[in-house]
């Protein structure tokens, strides 16, 4: 029996304009490479602050002065020694750097996977758990959650030095943090509605 050549399928030809627009996604690559460089800056900053903290503990006067200048708040008395509060503020600053670094990783890897090209990491032992089901909506929710974590660190640092701030500043920072919380909840709720709608559409089909 001769095959019906009329039923054979051929690859669909993409119009030149559409193909050019599709290729334009690679213009985002320099942006993600720039974020990788920013990640390197944060790594350098982290180790500088950590080395100064260790040096201050071992009575290195230059490192101690840098740490005390770093934790000093305008309008408050500058600490004269490395006490528990100063160490806590430095550690919170290091945690802040780590959380911003995590945010950068999510934007770099998740954004590249979602908007530029597949990384084909399926089955790789080091594949991030969230990358297997990442899309634009999931990425927005995770970014919003990361921003809340960063905001929490800044708010905690403010309340540790609450005496150095006026009531208006404390209220404003608290309101901004609450706004981040409600924004994340709204994004997650919208994502849930979209997912449920898509699931119901597939079931009806």
Notes on the structure:
The chain is mainly alpha-helical and about 200 residues long. The chain has one domain (about 30-120, about 125-205). It has six helices and no strands. The protein is elongated, with a radius of gyration of 25 Å. The model has no long low-confidence stretch (mean pLDDT about 80).
Write the layout of secondary structure elements.
Layout (H helix, E strand, L loop, with lengths): L15 H8 L5 H29 L3 H11 L12 H33 L19 H25 L6 H38 L1
Helix pairs in contact: 2-3, 2-4, 4-5, 5-6
Keywords:
mainly alpha, 205 residues
Total of domains: 1
What is the percentage of strand-forming residues? Answer: under 5%
Question: In terms of quaternary structure, what is this?
Answer: single chain
Shape: elongated
The overall pLDDT, averaged over residues, is 82
Helix content: over 70%
Please describe the biggest sheet, giving its number of strands, its sense, and whether it closes into a barrel.
Answer: none
First and last CA, distance: 36 Å
Instruction: Show unreliable segments.
Output: none
Counting helices, strands and paired strands, the structural category is mainly alpha
Number of helices: 6
Q: H/E order of the elements?
A: HHHHHH
What is the strand tally? 0
| CA gyration radius, whole angstroms | 25 Å
């Amino acid at each position: 029996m001769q095959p019906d050549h009329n039923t054979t399928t051929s690859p669909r030809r993409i119009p030149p304009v559409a193909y050019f627009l599709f290729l334009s996604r690679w213009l985002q690559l320099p942006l993600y490479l720039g974020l990788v460089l920013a990640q390197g800056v944060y790594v350098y900053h982290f180790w500088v602050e950590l080395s100064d903290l260790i040096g201050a503990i071992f009575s290195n006067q230059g490192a101690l002065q840098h740490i005390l200048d770093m934790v000093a708040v305008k309008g408050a008395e500058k600490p004269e020694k490395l006490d528990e509060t100063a160490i806590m503020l430095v550690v919170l600053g290091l945690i802040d750097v780590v959380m911003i670094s995590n945010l950068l990783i999510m934007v770099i890897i998740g954004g590249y996977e979602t908007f530029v090209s597949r990384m084909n990491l399926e089955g790789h032992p080091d594949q991030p758990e969230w990358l297997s089901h990442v899309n634009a909506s999931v990425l927005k929710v995770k970014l919003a959650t990361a921003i809340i974590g960063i905001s929490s660190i800044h708010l905690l640092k403010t309340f540790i030095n609450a005496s150095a701030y006026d009531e208006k500043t404390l209220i404003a920072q608290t309101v901004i943090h609450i706004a981040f919380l409600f924004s994340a909840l709204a994004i997650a709720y919208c994502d849930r509605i979209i997912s449920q709608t898509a699931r119901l559409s597939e079931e009806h089909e």
